[in-house]
Design brief:
The protein is mainly beta and 932 residues long. It has eight helices and 51 strands. It is globular and about 100 Å long.
Length: 932
Amino acid sequence: MLVALFVAIGSYAQGNGVISGKITDKDSNFSLPGATVRFTDSNRYTISNQIGDYEFLNIPAGSYTVEVLYIGYQTISQEVTVESGKTTVLNFVVGTDSENLKEVVVVGDRLKGQARALNQQKNNKNITNVISSDQVGRFPDANIGDALKRVPGITMQNDQGEARNIIIRGLAPALNSVTINGDRIPSAEGDNRNVQMDLIPSDMIATLEVNKTLTPDMDGDAIGGSVNLITRAAPNGERISATLAGGYAPIRENPIYTAGLVYGNRFLNGKLGLVVSGSYNNNDFGSDNVEAVWVNDDAGNTYVEEMDIRKYDVQRIRRSAAVAFDYKFNENNTIYANAMYNWRDDRENRFRTTYDDIEANYAADGTTIESFTGRVKRETKGGVDNTRNKSRRLEDQRVQNYALRGEHLLTPGLDMDWQMNYSKAREFRPGERYIEFEQEGLAFTQNVTDPERPFIGTTGEDANAFAQSALTENRDDTSESEFGAKLNFRFPLSVIEGQKGRMRVGGRLRIKDKDRNNIFYSYENIGDAPTLAQVPTSYFNGNGFNPGSQYVPGLFASANYLGGLALNNTSLFTSEADPSEYLAVNYNAKENIYAGYVRWDQDLTSKLSMIVGVRVENTNIDYTGNRVLDEEELEGKITNTNSYTNVLPNLQFKYNATDDLVLRAAFTTALARPDYYALAPYVNNIAADSEIIAGNPALKATYAYNYDFMAENYFKSVGLVSAGAFYKKLNDFIYTYNNNQYNTTDFAADFPGQANPVPAGEEWNFIQSRNGQSVDVYGFEVAFQRQLDFLPSFLKHLGIYTNYTFTESKANGVTNEDGEERQGVSLPGTAPHMFNGSLFWDNNKFSARVSVNYASDYLDELGSDAFQDSYYDKQLFLDANASYKITKNLRVFAEANNLTNQPLRYYQGISSRTKQVEFYQGRFNLGLKFDF
């Protein structure tokens, strides 16, 4: 029936023609995406795509006047004659609107980039935020994650001082998606679907597009939103860009090196386009860390039962390369090819002092704590001494994506496009080593009068008494691959005379495979193991230690000593695989997703348009995990298969109240599939700790109903003020269930037919991901950005970029260890307040900007009760950057990040009770950028 419909459409359209062309900037020859191209005598219009191309289908033969509208540019028009059965090419070259933009903007590149982003955002049918590469370059953001935190409604979770995991409108990373040119990026993480946003350099992306409402032709697994990273397309002429910078990381007083190169051009009389780009960043830095685990005893005393002082030395080398081709066979057929390869090496040494096995000694009354005793462990983390590890733990992460697509005009009334892509992510950690020394039975003192900085003191520490307690080497290997294919058809279909209508139908295939295969070995010295006093050591005092000089990391086996140990020399060491470290975490996951959709865009009036459609996604999963007894004994493989289908209806409206004011309303649905490892059917029985950790193959995908409203007013002088509200109802949301009263009856009920490891009369701790009942998430966001060109004199060069988001959530169906529903629990990851502010000054030579980013504290992870709940503390980042044009093509720039020395901080239960605090200090760069 679908084929017959296409034949009928093609036959009907044979007597009509097509208009196609490209919109470019008069001065730079850059393509202009998001331009409105319309007929002056009717409501027939279209929008230029990401590379500035546009197309009108099924146009009756005749003469017309076509005009182009673009915020910040002059409106221009041309006459065109359409011939039956032919494609007429009509290109537009447009210039900036000097009357509206004022002189400062006509010569300023920054607002041209902002104009490209705002035109796309305004003309998108769904609710989006768009940031162009020019805008990204105006912030001192080294990676995509740091750039995204400037977007309304987005906050980031940091790792080693860089933004890594994305939270959109209060929804955790697992509830969002990340794509490159519309294709999903696989995850290099071992146990989840999170894409590490600090892996991709910001200068490798042309446009950041955050879709806060999905359309039926988009993958449906993005409840919070979908981030699309659009790479560079081939330019319209020769382009060369180069960046060279050097910097300084004060926390370890080491240099930073940065370089980038872009070359693009067109060949074969413009038929073949090519762009290649590369990026390199080398940063040798570190962090200072303190961590604590708190306990509340039966007498009501709150104290620290375990504490770490950690010193990290990290070298992060980020490399990225990309190439894009396009070949235009004729006006009706074009193919595109893209490839991107991201490679990051993280080399890390960690020196960790641990105070554990802490026992409180009570007075005669049985309630007052008089003293503490415990153990001190001193651990060095590193790697084998070779050319790759260099005596450090090496985390080799690579993400690669390859895509081939085509766009074809089959008839004047029928468009077809297709795409195939292959992507792969891998995290490989070879030759990772640990050596640990411990001394037991030490007297401890605790000072918790200031729980933000708890402190443990010891007496009697002696390097000669620190016995070697562990020597290990492991190899961790996680990989995920995905093959995807798409086929889409598009044709005009309107049920209202004189109004535009368009139908899109298509199918989608995704074949995913994820595998984690770790191995872990323990080593023992032949003969007596050395004490800490008998090995080469490194000592770190508390001077300059960011959490406070009272925290002294102390004495450790040196990283070079650990890396140089000949562990494979059987005359020196014996080795034994340690299944407790890898059996339970290894798994394989296969996931096939088949999807189809129908999307109908219909203009109801000249101002009001509608999207209505539905997407159907079928998911087939096959997971294999291990059933492990007492951490070490493999009792067998457990395989689970499942299949489910989700129907995702979609309805959105857009109302152009005026030329500048746009109102949007949407009802959409979306889903979030459980994390891979959470679904793996493993059971890990740890008898020594009276604990069971289990996967949950019965986890359901979270299904959400989303309601959105947005009002946007665009300034002709290139700016925006917007306000919107949203509400999301999430059914079957996933949380971590923790039961410390788990008994033999509970296990028999949860795992029938399996050997019961819990002895009668004992209570163990049980941890498993489970579905809650539902979550309500709601909030609002406001944004304002504008050049203050209405001010006099030099003040007209000032500009403001600011946004604020409020989010609230309420979770239902979360139970405690007694099976009772917890009240007043929010969804983990919901930051109530998020704010971005930037004040800039810009003219044709000089540009300067000061930026602030704030996110309030929020629940990060649910514990067994409120005392054990973990929170991600508030963050306030202050950044600054400036640039000066030396010549037309060369500018010098300076950047400063994290001027507030904002730490990463978690707290347990209440805000004053520090669980972790980690400092990174600032980062500074100075460089040159060449553009031709």
